[in-house]
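Thread title: Can someone regenerate the structure for this chain?

I was given the following input by a collaborator and told the matching structure tokens would be attached. They weren't. Posting the sequence so someone can regenerate them.
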Amino acid sequence: MTGRPAPAVLPPSLRPWLGLIATLAALMVVALGVLYAGHGEPGRVDRWIIRPTADSVRPPWRHVALALDFLGEPAGSAMLIVVGVAGCLLLRHPRAAVLVVAGVGMAVGTTTLLKHLVGRTIHGAGNLSYPSGHTAFFTALALMAALLATGRLGLGRTAGTSLVLAAALVAGAAMGWAQVALGAHYPTDVLGGWCTALAVIPATAWLVDRMADRMTDRTADAGRLERR
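Best answer:
Regenerated them for you:
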């Protein structure tokens, strides 16, 4: 053991701002869920942006949308998770590897639960749509990658927060566009999925750090007792 503390997956300098953002995002998720609970048609905001249909986008952009959509499907998401975990382990950052698994699980689990609670549908009663799990998953991965980069680069509060939000915005916009273009979700479903990731990932990262720190303290205490 080197005696050096393991790097946190949620940099301390980012905690206040990301905590505030997570709280606001959670409120947005709840507000949209209440507003569209039990609905099966696009709302006013959805119609103002675009009315989702299967023909919203044509080749070659349809191929791009389908490729992005695949990354949110079981096979594609599993591939991204394996790559993410392997990358974290290669960088000797086991906490980040744990965060990838836990963060994805929390983001996808939360959207699945909310879909059944809200009951909003698209293209038929069997297609629960709010919030978008694909958007939450892809945004969550981008958030976790940005948190890792912030810690390794030693970025300050302003630069780190900007990087995290920019990564979340790009990932959420890309996957959200694909979901709306393919007619799989309403625009407000995408917003709900994006906000779900913003709410869940900082909280999950904080929990991972807290549990890892406790385990480290217990190991250190046990080592001191053995040396006595």
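The chain has eight helices and no strands.
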